[in-house]
Amino acid sequence: MLGIIAAVLFFIAFLINAADIATNDVFTSVNFMLIGLMLLALHVAGIGSGWAARGRRR
To answer: Which residue ranges run through the membrane (predicted)?
Structure first.
C-alpha cells in the first residue's frame, strides 16, 4: 500500500515539475519526492505490507 502511495506522490511531483506549476514552499516537487522516497523506504522495510501470518510450527 505504501508503494502505491509513493508512486502517486512521484507522479504528482513529476506533474508539478513538468508543468512548471508555481506552488508555495510546502507543496514543491522536491517535497513530494522526499515524502515518496520515505514511503518507498518504509514499504521496502516491510512497514505497512499487511499482517504476517504467524502460525505454529509442528
So the answer is: 34-53
- State the total domains in the chain: 1
Please state the separation of Cα 34 from the chain's center in Å. 8
Q: Is residue 23 part of a domain?
A: yes
Residue 14: inside a domain: yes
CA 27 to chain CA centroid, nearest Å:
15
- Does residue 40 contact residue 8 with C-beta atoms inside 8 Å? no
Question: In this predicted model, what pLDDT tens digit does every residue of 10-21 receive, in sequence order?
Answer: 888 888 888 877
Radius of gyration of the chain (CA): 16
